[in-house]
Specification:
Helix content: 55-70%
Strand content: under 5%
CATH superfamily: Glycerol uptake facilitator protein
Radius of gyration: 17 Å
Low-confidence stretches: none
Order of helices and strands: HHHHHHH
Largest sheet: none
Length: 227
Amino acid sequence: MKKMVAEVIGTAALVFFGCGAAIFAGAEIGTAGIAAAFGLAIVAMAYGIGAISGCHINPAVSFGAMVAGRMSVGDMIQYWIAQFIGATVGAAILYLIATNTADGVSAAGGMGTNGWGADYGGGYNMTAAFVFEVVATFLFLVTILGVTHGKGGHPAVAGLAIGLALWVIHLVGIKITGTSVNPARSFGPALFHMDAMKQLWLFIVAPLIGAGLAGVLFRSGMLENND
């Protein structure tokens, strides 16, 4: 139960800070600022709840860990439930704030949702979006699984390394897809901006493929430090 509560809080915080930066301050801080918000949110949560749940706060991370042999299927499913609940809570708080401005006009806009196409970001198509999400999630999981590995990992700086990785991933991907690499992060905001639900499948499938590939490499020993 402690792990589930931690995952709910951590995922809610990631959505609240990351998507909140895009909704309320995107025009002022730009891509770099939004990327920093996501990265620093991960750093904060990693040190806040990492000792409790490992701070997955991302179904792709839990899936990659399961494929790598670091958690059971049952535990992964429980993590998934907590993560999707947390993302929904975080997005709901943002929606409540954004739709209660002084003049009564919604500031929610796209709710920090992910997407692709001519009317989104840089106008990249579905192929570009899919490739980016697979590759970015793969590299993200390589970082996570490597830095948290018992033999060759660096637990004291794991949170910082993971946060910096997410930061640079957002710098590359915000104009392409808004950067997901996290099915729960995409799901929560999409609930409050229903047009995004039509494209949500990509932000579930692609991150899981990328995470699964990284997990396979670690489970096979290709990326394990055996020294």
